[in-house]
Design a protein that fits this description.
This protein is mostly helical and 278 residues long. It contains 11 helices and no strands. Helix 1 packs antiparallel against helix 11, helix 3 runs parallel beside helix 6 and helix 6 packs across helix 8. The radius of gyration is 23 Å and the shape is globular. 30% of the residues are buried.
Length: 278
């Protein structure tokens, strides 16, 4: 009986949360499947659903969509680069702090985490100035480095907490067998940390994929920018093609959704693993 009551309470909470989350997605699909003249009629389902909007978007048959696939490619390249670079930096830092016990490592990690007390929006202009100083503005490296800077502190923290749970006896056995620090990292640390590394890499990739503010500031040319910024241009005119905006949004949401559902068990297990230990 107690189990049934518990499940009923979960449903009472879960169903409203699901509906609250799903309703915007439903309306996005509704716009995508509606002809332009029917998009704002407020019906729960269009009288004549059509795939014409998808045909227009896939064929880039609107001046807002001239660089659609190029911008999608930019988003993909930048997101992958951010995921891989963040993973490399965070894994090496977690190994040094947790397993090699480098002096001052924990202080540096905690100082990096302090940057999260400052909203990322407030750091956008200093980041713009720094990229201009180093001549990186309007290059993909500007956005990649900015996003790695934002993602890395949390990634280090997650991987360090996961690394602390590995038995030290494994390191000691490898050292007795003559393993050097790079061999310890490559043959012991990385294989054991693989699930956590997948979770952190996915987190950084999705963070970069959905980024708007830094991409808007650091990349100004249409051919350089990401699709997230290009979608914002749809809102610049009074007669914005909302049905095409929503259709493009549906297409843009598919890659991160696929990535998340592919690695969701790693995301759920490892991004929260550090919450019970400091």
């Amino acid at each position: 009986m107690r189990k049934i009551v518990g499940e009923a309470r979960l449903l009472l909470i879960g169903i409203p949360v699901f509906l609250w989350t799903a309703i915007p997605l439903y309306h996005m699909m509704l716009f995508a499947l509606s002809p332009k003249e029917a998009a704002f009629k407020g019906k729960l389902w269009p009288d004549n659903p059509t795939l014409r909007n998808f045909e227009l978007v896939f064929g880039q048959k609107h001046y807002y969509l001239n660089n659609l696939w190029h911008q999608m490619w930019n988003s993909l390249i930048i997101a992958l680069a951010v995921g891989l670079l963040t993973l490399f930096v965070a894994t090496a830092a977690a190994f040094a702090i947790s397993r090699l016990r480098v002096r001052g490592g924990r202080i540096i990690m905690n100082m990096a985490l302090l940057t999260y007390f400052v909203p990322a929006a407030f750091l956008a202009l200093p980041m713009y100035k720094a990229m201009a100083t180093y001549g990186l503005l309007n290059t993909q490296w500007a956005l990649i480095l900015a996003m790695v800077t934002i993602a890395t502190p949390y990634a280090i923290w997650v991987l360090k907490q996961a690394a602390d749970k590995l038995p030290l006896e494994l390191d000691e056995a490898a050292i007795v067998d003559g393993a050097t620090a790079p061999q310890l990292f490559r043959h012991v640390f990385v294989p054991l940390m693989a699930p956590s590394m997948v979770a952190v890499g996915t987190y950084a990739l999705l963070l970069a994929w959905n980024e708007y503010l830094y991409a808007f500031l650091l990349l100004s040319r249409d051919v350089d920018t990401t699709l997230a910024v290009a979608l914002g241009a749809f809102l610049s005119a009074d007669d914005s093609p909302w049905e095409l905006l929503m259709t493009t949004g549906v297409i843009y949401a598919l890659p991160p959704a696929a990535i998340y559902y592919t690695f969701r068990r790693y995301m759920a297990a490892d991004l929260t693993s550090g919450s019970v230990k400091t």
